[in-house]
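Pipeline run #58 for the internal structure catalog. This entry was flagged by the ingest filter as a single-chain record with no existing model, so it goes straight to prediction. Upstream metadata was stripped on purpose; only the residue string is passed forward. Reviewer on rotation: M.T. Logging verbosity set to normal.
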Amino acid sequence: MRLLREDRRLVLLLLLDKAPGSESNHYLLREALGVKGHNTSHDIVAAELVWLEEQGLVTLEKLENMYIATLTARGHDAANGRCAIPGVKKPIPGE
């Protein structure tokens, strides 16, 4: 379970890193996670985004019942393997 959670968090960071403006809403992120092999609920994605915000990896804006996540500089570094964050899988070079 821990490995799955750490990988899901890394995938979220990688998705945001490639998104226009390094931001996306949690509904689109949930769909993109499914394509990457992480079929999960909106609640889990929202909870992961809140955790990533607590670590300083994303900022969140809540609009009605939707989160808009924006990658921070620290989140960009974590997504690209330039820093290690406990609870986030470190990316494997070349993947």
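catalog note: The chain has four helices and three strands.
catalog note: The CA atoms of residues 49 and 69 lie 7 Å apart.
status: ready for reviewer M.T.
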